[in-house]
Design goal:
The chain is mostly beta strands and 246 residues long. It is built from 2 helices and 15 strands. Helix content is 12%, strand content 33%. Strands 1, 2, 3, 4, 12, 13, 14 and 15 form an 8-stranded antiparallel beta sheet that branches. A 4-stranded antiparallel beta sheet has the order 7-6-5-11, with no helix packed on it. A 3-stranded antiparallel beta sheet has the order 8-9-10, with no helix packed on it. The mean pLDDT is 88.
């Protein structure tokens, strides 16, 4: 009898712990790992970040496995909605499968008109100013280009760094994009190495697909996997820990 009581108490405690963890993950913060270089130089491969789930409101995609309702047959829209600002770095579910998590920067809001000419962004007929900075040196062992041109772009009060790998990239010149109501236009900061709203397989991002806003880096490893603990002493990027994401 005592064994059954102890087992029941342990099960109850574990269940409460799991419930609290899911609640925090769904409503407050969720950790994500950066697996690719599409957001260099601001987010690097091996960065571990926290994303605030409450920033833009809650949808089915705020919860684990999208509540098993990725097509919105039971739960659609947003609770407590709040639109992102241009320049926010957001995590979202891709419109293509509503399962895969992407992280990009918001460049266009509903109603905005966007065109890319020779790698420069024209937003609502205004040229987004960018200024050349010192080159970015890439230590990623999977990167074939180690020295990359870096610029700073200025969106009103928001400014951030971007990379430009090559001239005349595949998406350096585009047609005009008009952002539909309830959608957003996103781009990676590594402009020539990012699948984003410039491409039809991503396209405009529905508001309810936004999972949250990237807030800060809580851990970072260079050319090492998280479970390769023996590599940590030489792989931890100490200068990136607790760094705020701009």
């Amino acid at each position: 009898m005592k064994f059954r009581t102890k087992l029941a108490n342990n099960f109850f405690s574990i269940s409460i712990a799991i419930f609290i963890a899911i609640l925090i993950r769904s409503t407050l913060f969720e950790p994500f790992n950066i697996p690719s270089g599409s957001m260099k130089p601001n987010l690097l491969v091996g960065d571990f970040i926290f994303v605030s789930k409450y920033s833009y409101g809650f949808s089915r995609h705020s919860f684990p496995f999208s509540l098993g309702d990725k097509d919105g047959k039971l739960f659609s829209g947003k609770l407590f909605p709040s639109e992102p600002n241009i320049g926010d770095i957001v995590v979202f579910k891709t419109p293509e499968d509503k399962r895969t998590d992407y992280i990009k920067r918001v460049i266009g809001l509903p109603g905005d008109k966007i065109k890319i000419i020779n790698g420069n962004i024209i937003l609502n007929e205004n040229l987004i100013i960018r200024k050349k900075e010192n080159d970015f040196y890439d230590n990623d062992k999977n990167s074939s280009i180690k020295r990359v041109r870096k610029y700073k772009e200025y969106f009103n009060e928001k400014e951030f760094e971007i990379l430009d790998l090559i001239d005349n990239g595949i998406a350096d010149n585009t047609n005009m994009f008009v952002v539909p109501d309830g959608h957003f236009f996103v781009m990676g900061d590594n402009r020539d190495n990012s699948q984003d709203s410039r491409f039809s397989n991503v396209g405009f991002i529905p508001f309810e697909n936004l999972v949250g806003k990237a807030r800060f880096i809580f851990f970072s490893l260079e050319n090492s996997r998280f479970l390769e603990i023996w590599k940590w002493p030489n792989s931890i990027r100490y200068n990136r820990i607790l760094k705020k994401i701009q």
